[in-house]
């Protein structure tokens, strides 16, 4: 059934032959050497030609037996030699992914040569087979479109990277959404010896849009048909994968199967493991034509150069046009058309062993593809139910999938030693910047964090945004970690406008967030919230990097720079849009301040108006934000004036001022040197002032900070003296940089600091 099983059976058969054949032979000879119960000598030296018992016929029999003995001994020597070779190769095969080269697995693409190989004792386990060179690049093509498919691609790529020992070149046929997500992901992932090329799927739509398709993959499910035309003309072969694939072995083993193709074989496919193409699933079930059970196209080996010479484009188009006249549409997208072509041209296909595409759909025969975990190569979640599919061993498969789903992708940034790789400008710049740091510096870890490249997955969930016709839209920008997740629903209830959030999570936490969001009616009803995952790395919380990521990916001309533990007043979104027009924010450098308050109560009857808020202030239910621990942070807002203000009023910058503001999307980014707790917002407001932004307080706007346990970073700040020393050092360096950049006007920041 499997290549490895065949190897073991042949090994066992050869062993038995070595033991059994000589034993039988010698029993036969030994029995033949007795006559009337007496031993008869077989040695010519011991023969007695003059004995009456000795005859010419017995002499010939002995000579014949002696010849047979020599033949058996020669066969035994040959078998022992073959066994010793197999044993010496055995550990390399058992090591699996640690082997440097990969023998090809036997398929059923050429049954005659397979039988000939077995007869000759030269099977895939024992014979010399073409292998994948250590540094040979493996090409993989994947069609990917949309937000959900982009998440699936990451899990697939993780499973490939986990096992791989060769350079990889991914060819991603992606729509604009998937390209934006995956380009950023791979750019920030920085995996050595991995190259990514994108091909615009939207440009290919016209090639296949004429084919009606009922499959849930839509038009993108037909694009594998045009890969010969889409991929580079000098690319000779490629492995094509669906996004719902999980690898359980090194992809180089699959790449090696190309060497098994013979004659006109140009497609490597696994037989379909359901009864779909047999046409007996229900009454009047009429599938597309297929050879037997047909073939599944979740895993395809394509010999592109030969396909082009065969005029593949013309071949599949003519077949599709002919079949659509009676079938009207495809049910399984490209798979139907591939099978129709193969039905007419069976010589095109090399049938892969079924463990290269273990299909976990309902009513599948996939259990016949494996007997043990070690037999598994590729798992294909080809049911719309995905992880909820019914299968005898689905728990095992689900756990294997979840292993890669939650696996720390940072651990896959391993070098392929001995393989030259293309120069990566980003990687080289990073190494140069890190090499310039002094590792003996007590603040080295703080400085290093500024240059750390965090793997980033944009738009982790589906996102839709329709621009406002009056061009006044405002996006709420915030960042959070797992311990603030409970604030999301409340913010969505208070703010109906677009939101951009950067979440600092591990791979496992990202999946917990996904399950949380998908289980929330509030979050699932909102499609104008962009969730951007920045994966954990290092010991500090990169607060300003997170803010920059959220700021960079807004779709509106204005943004409200907030924090996740603040609830905006009801109606603030519409109020800010009106203020943007009233204060001409489009043509002036203004930062509109939303006054911040706080409560110490976990349960708060949120004030629905300014009058109600003032009443709660007077009763001691609310307070101006941080008045008891950090008065300077918001004192310049002038809360006394705000109580009676009916029109916006201007305030001046003061030392340590850190209000929450509404600005244009082109405002400066936050300074990344500040991580964890301390000076992260203060530095940003200082730079806005240096760039001559005018601070204007909005008289009828407010936000309220909700209580929560202290963050880990503020605990470190309070308990670690070195942390505070490094923060002070970074602050001084920032002020010096400001002076160099903004000149004489920036000297006030140094004096203000000294006087405060």
TrEMBL record:
Residues 44-58 have a biased composition (Polar residues). Pfam families: Glyco_transf_49, Glyco_transf_8. GO terms for cellular component: Golgi membrane. Pathway: Protein modification; protein glycosylation. It is a single-pass type II membrane protein. Its main location: Golgi. Residues 42-62, 81-110 are annotated as: Disordered. GO terms for biological process: protein O-linked glycosylation via mannose. It is found in: Golgi apparatus membrane. It catalyses: 3-O-[beta-D-GlcA-(1->3)-beta-D-Xyl-(1->4)-Rib-ol-P-Rib-ol-P-3-beta-D-GalNAc-(1->3)-beta-D-GlcNAc-(1->4)-(O-6-P-alpha-D-Man)]-Thr-[protein] + UDP-alpha-D-xylose = 3-O-[alpha-D-Xyl-(1->3)-beta-D-GlcA-(1->4)-beta-D-Xyl-(1->4)-Rib-ol-P-Rib-ol-P-3-beta-D-GalNAc-(1->3)-beta-D-GlcNAc-(1->4)-(O-6-P-alpha-D-Man)]-Thr-[protein] + UDP + H(+); 3-O-{(1->[3)-alpha-D-Xyl-(1->3)-beta-D-GlcA-(1->](n)-4)-beta-D-Xyl-(1->4)-Rib-ol-P-Rib-ol-P-3-beta-D-GalNAc-(1->3)-beta-D-GlcNAc-(1->4)-O-6-P-alpha-D-Man}-L-Thr-[protein] + UDP-alpha-D-glucuronate = 3-O-{beta-D-GlcA-(1->[3)-alpha-D-Xyl-(1->3)-beta-D-GlcA-(1->](n)-4)-beta-D-Xyl-(1->4)-Rib-ol-P-Rib-ol-P-3-beta-D-GalNAc-(1->3)-beta-D-GlcNAc-(1->4)-O-6-P-alpha-D-Man}-L-Thr-[protein] + UDP + H(+); 3-O-{beta-D-GlcA-(1->[3)-alpha-D-Xyl-(1->3)-beta-D-GlcA-(1->](n)-4)-beta-D-Xyl-(1->4)-Rib-ol-P-Rib-ol-P-3-beta-D-GalNAc-(1->3)-beta-D-GlcNAc-(1->4)-O-6-P-alpha-D-Man}-L-Thr-[protein] + UDP-alpha-D-xylose = 3-O-{(1->[3)-alpha-D-Xyl-(1->3)-beta-D-GlcA-(1->](n+1)-4)-beta-D-Xyl-(1->4)-Rib-ol-P-Rib-ol-P-3-beta-D-GalNAc-(1->3)-beta-D-GlcNAc-(1->4)-O-6-P-alpha-D-Man}-L-Thr-[protein] + UDP + H(+). Keywords: Glycoprotein, Glycosyltransferase, Golgi apparatus, Membrane, Multifunctional enzyme, Signal-anchor, Transferase, Transmembrane, Transmembrane helix. One of its GO terms (molecular function) is glucuronosyltransferase activity. The chain crosses the membrane at residues 12-31. CDD domains: GT8_LARGE_C. It comes from the Eukaryota. SUPFAM superfamilies: Nucleotide-diphospho-sugar transferases (SSF53448). In the N-terminal section; belongs to the glycosyltransferase 8 family. In the C-terminal section; belongs to the glycosyltransferase 49 family. This is LARG1 glucuronyltransferase. It comes from Bucco capensis (collared puffbird). The lineage of its organism: Eukaryota, Metazoa, Chordata, Craniata, Vertebrata.
